[in-house]
């Protein structure tokens, strides 16, 4: 049986009187791909922030490969081999694509190895034609792809992505789908996403959040046709 790489037990986050994450028990196996969906305010981002260390939960625990990481800082979690892409980009606009990726690779490798890894990622993410272009000059979809490259270069076994397809063209989304599928050869991937087309193309199992809690967890087709889910989510959005 595949190893459990991410697990939460009774994860709860309160902001004053608001329970943004409500007793969430979540489990993800090695190389599994999971989308987290739900209407605005359902608690997806709060759950994501608790798992990535941006927030410390009010109650409950987060385990990664069996280790209790509750309350750890994002950089500590990253150092376990976890790739995190938040909505706040961690890139340098005045440096080229290659330089940004090389710098990310250099954090974990010597200079020669960093160069080899950067070349490999540029190849795998089809960034060759823009490798020498400064980040500041890239289109939105290209930037998102570079940010995914910064995550992939660390060779993570768990990847946590917050809205990777936001604001992208159909072509960019298709490319992003392919890259994420490639990632699942070596990593489990969790994606918080709004884009239904992207979710349908990328996901098998989705977890639906509603009012901070998990409403349903099933194959994307089943979830999309579920009456309760449609009422709370698709009814409003799709
Ligand atoms: N820092 C905060 N302080 C107070 N309330 C918060 C805070 N962050 C989130 N909330 C509240 O917690 C609830 C869940 O919000 P959250 O952002 O996690 O939902 P979401 O599913 O990610 O929504 P969206 O799809 O709009 O990003 C909402 O009611 C929100 O107003």
Automatic annotation (TrEMBL):
Residues 6-236 form the ABC transporter domain. Gene3D superfamilies: P-loop containing nucleotide triphosphate hydrolases. The keyword Transport applies. Keywords: ATP-binding, Nucleotide-binding, Transport. It comes from the Bacteria. GO terms for molecular function: ATP binding. Pfam families: ABC_tran (PF00005). Coiled coil: none annotated. InterPro entries: ABC_AA/LPS_Transport, ABC_transporter-like_ATP-bd, ABC_transporter-like_CS, P-loop_NTPase. This is ATP-binding cassette domain-containing protein. The lineage of its organism: Bacteria, Pseudomonadati, Pseudomonadota, Alphaproteobacteria, Rhodobacterales.
């Amino acid at each position: 049986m595949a190893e459990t790489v991410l697990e939460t037990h009774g994860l709860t986050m309160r902001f004053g009187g608001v329970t943004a994450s409500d007793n969430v028990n979540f489990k993800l196996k090695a190389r599994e791909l999971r989308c987290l969906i739900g209407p605005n305010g359902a608690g997806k981002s709060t759950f994501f922030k608790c798992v990535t260390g941006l927030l410390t939960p009010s109650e409950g625990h987060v385990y990664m490969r069996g280790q209790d990481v509750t309350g750890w800082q994002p950089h500590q979690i990253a150092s376990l081999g976890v790739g995190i892409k938040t909505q706040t980009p961690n890139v340098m606009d005045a440096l080229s694509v290659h330089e940004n990726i090389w710098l990310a690779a250099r954090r974990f490798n010597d200079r020669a190895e960093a160069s080899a890894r950067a070349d490999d990622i540029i190849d795998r993410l089809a960034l060759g034609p823009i490798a020498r272009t400064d980040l500041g000059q890239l289109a939105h979809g290209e930037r998102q792809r570079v940010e995914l490259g910064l995550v992939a270069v660390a060779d993570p076994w768990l990847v946590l992505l917050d809205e990777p397809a936001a604001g992208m063209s159909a072509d960019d989304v298709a490319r992003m789908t392919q890259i994420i599928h490639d990632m699942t050869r070596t990593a489990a991937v969790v994606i918080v996403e709004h884009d239904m087309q992207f979710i349908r193309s990328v996901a098998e199992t989705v977890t639906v959040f509603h009012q901070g809690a998990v409403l349903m967890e099933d194959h994307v087709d089943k979830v999309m046709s579920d009456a309760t889910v449609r009422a709370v989510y698709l009814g409003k959005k799709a």
